[in-house]
Amino acid sequence: MQPPTFRGKPSDAHALWRRSGAGAGGPKRFDEAYLREWCSARGIDFETDRRVDHGRSDEPREQYRCVFAWADEERESFAVGDDEWEIATQETPRTFLEIDDAGEARLKSWTDEYVFDIEELWTDCDALVFRAAGADGAKRLDARKLTGRPE
Prior knowledge:
Order of helices and strands: EEHEEEEEEEEEH
Strand content: over 45%
Low-confidence stretches: none
Shape: elongated
Helix content: under 10%
Oligomer: single chain
Number of strands: 11
Mean pLDDT: 85
Distance between the termini: 37 Å
Radius of gyration: 18 Å
Structural class: mainly beta
Number of helices: 2
């Protein structure tokens, strides 16, 4: 993906798009600053990392992740002789949308996980809305549902 250009975005709410008229072969544009700002305004963590996600590629890619909820940290204590030990798991994202530098995404909800190729991503109040290759129409992710525990 490439940063926005002087031609601008399709709308102020867009975070990922292709330039109008560029077609499927045109480069995707990504406004990281806008997505980071949107996340911050809603108390959603935004992270970047460079790693391999084998569901999308065998090569390392830059990853941009909106973390809606974190998994509960687990701790276990045990004793060996007179020594007491405590093991804690690393904090991991529980629900998230992660987009790599090719525009491919992994969505982890409370119950499911999906991998798809995003063609366009924009915000609508507290929701992320996207169009993906192979998907019919626009899909809507309500951030409020991904930040709170399911009922």
